[in-house]
């Protein structure tokens, strides 16, 4: 292979030494590597600006988004492992984005999905790759602590009033995030056909909003499990302030410790942190917990093919996470002969939810910077923008699955109870 000759194009700048000047110079090799990078990720309509202001784009494209690469090292790192090093170098400022980060990522993801190197294909046990901790009892505690126990004050700045960190539901596209999260909780309650006096167990309750909603508006008696100390402490305080202590109990423990029988089992946003190795274990917990006429609901991020999440995301944001395919989810149900009653995909609702979170995050970035630092700001901006992009293009899904025991005939003949926006039954 011929190595391109050095370029004579040098951007105007001042320096104090010949070494600095050489470091800032863009050679023909650099421009060739930049073009090679674009080819590797599928030649998206993307403008690459190098450290001396040299600009490169795929032939015939009119890019609406672009990236600025500040130094040669960042370019070489992109070529070696873009899925890891792009995130780290963006967070440290060695890479900058023009035209909007979510739009940039959507553009790149669409192109990468068409290239042999990055095309997603089903891979057995994909969730094990690049993960420092799998989801054993101790591994789960470490993974959850890494993400959720970084301070309630941080999450309070950009979540809704009830502190729901899961997909909202927008029956009206113009609804506020607060209204959409309440609509999501009502949707879950309607799907479970909750009635006053029924008992509910919740696995992975976040900051406890759904449990309080079920008790306050549907008359249910709820026991909710969670291993995040920060979230449990917040949940208990909210229940006390709202006079719900006698109807809602928050247990700081793993889902594997669930005991007793209940009229309903619900898990919203926890399955992503369980791992397929433990699905049958979770299914056994549900099997021993659900009454003969009970209903269950699993709400989870999912995907169409069994593929690992990006190594940067697993290393920096959410270790141990894995969104299952519907086929993989059957390990929860099939061994125990549960009947699947309904499957709904709320993917676009999650894209809209993440857009709301990102907007609120940006509005409060000065306060967040005081809590952490600029690198943290950029990491979470990248994470939230990536979520918007992935749900928008369909790389990620949001599944709600309703199920029961096989002999349960106390079920609705139509879906009208699920889709009618009637609020409290």
Our Rg estimate from Cα atoms comes to 24 Å
Overall, the morphology is elongated
Report mean pLDDT, rounded to a whole number. Answer: 89
Give the termini distance in whole angstroms: 71 Å
Describe the 3D structure:
There is one protein chain. By secondary structure, this protein is an alpha/beta fold. It contains 17 helices and 11 strands. A 7-stranded mixed β-sheet has the order 7-6-5-8-9-11-10. It has a 4-stranded mixed β-sheet with strand order 2-1-3-4. Helix 5 (101-112) packs across helix 16 (374-393) and helix 11 (279-289) crosses helix 13. Mean pLDDT is 89; it is low at 1-19.
Annotation keywords:
alpha/beta; single chain; 425 residues; 11 strands; 16% strand
In terms of topology, how is this protein built?
Elements: H1 18-24, H2 28-40, E1 46-49, E2 55-56, E3 65-69, H3 72-80, H4 82-91, E4 95-98, H5 101-112, H6 137-148, H7 152-156, H8 177-191, E5 199-203, H9 209-218, E6 221-226, H10 229-241, E7 248-252, E8 262-268, H11 279-289, E9 290-302, H12 311-317, H13 326-333, E10 339-345, H14 347-363, H15 365-371, H16 374-393, E11 397-404, H17 416-419
Parallel strand pairs: 1-3, 5-6, 5-8, 6-7, 8-9
Antiparallel strand pairs: 1-2, 3-4, 9-11, 10-11
Helix pairs in contact: 2-3, 3-4, 4-16, 5-16, 8-9, 11-13, 14-16
